Amino acid sequence: GESVGLHLPTLSVQEGDNSIINCAYSNSASDYFIWYKQESGKGPQFIIDIRSNMDKRQGQRVTVLLNKTVKHLSLQIAATQPGDSAVYFCAENIVGTYKYIFGTGTRLKVLA
Amino acid sequence: NAGVTQTPKFQVLKTGQSMTLQCAQDMNHEYMSWYRQDPGMGLRLIHYSVGAGITDQGEVPNGYNVSRSTTEDFPLRLLSAAPSQTSVYFCASSSGINEQFFGPGTRLTVL
What we know:
Chain A is mostly beta strands. Chain A has strands at about 10-15, 20-25, 30-40, 45-50, 55-60, 60-65, 70-75, 85-95, 100, 105-110. In chain A, the strands form two sheets. In chain A, strands 1, 3, 4, 8, 9 and 10 form a six-stranded mixed β-sheet that branches. A four-stranded antiparallel β-sheet of chain A has the order 2-7-6-5, with no helix packed on it. Chain B has no helices and eleven strands. In chain B, a hairpin with a 6-residue loop joins strand 9 (about 85-95) and strand 10. The radius of gyration of chain B is 13 Å and the shape is globular. The interface of A and B includes residues 46 and 102 of A.
């Protein structure tokens, strides 16, 4: 069964509403950021990324916003669907390295 | 393409035993890495490789060894398993500083 993420912060959203998941990153030298989705029993799956020379990037139903001043990253999911239920992680890449630092994750629950 | 594959999916070890977690990718990616995932702690980097013959330590390397003899394979060895190594282990690969592709994970329990 699922043992990872037992004590994660949880965001509950009504189906069809928009979701906003936040992440505070740790290193001001980070210049590349990724959002991952992890479903129960599976590995993380890439959703969207953004580099530090951008403030906003849009994908299909998802938008990532980057605020370098306060080291904050957010993921917006439009018209949230039951299939969006998962744990979402942000990750930052330390410039000049291959090292990524992952956030602890947020569990998104979509209510029917 | 199979992407990133990991074996075994589940493993139970006794304290002191050794074993190797296998990871392979068929995307010709230069970069590969191993992470462990524990409840409430996100993913932590154990070791990584930027190409065949090149490996380096991540955030939590103690108790683990790696080697990269080919582009495709990146095995992780536990020399003497300890209960603190009970975790879910993920292997990932990428073509550079961009999207990482993750394997399905290995769930390891050390008694």
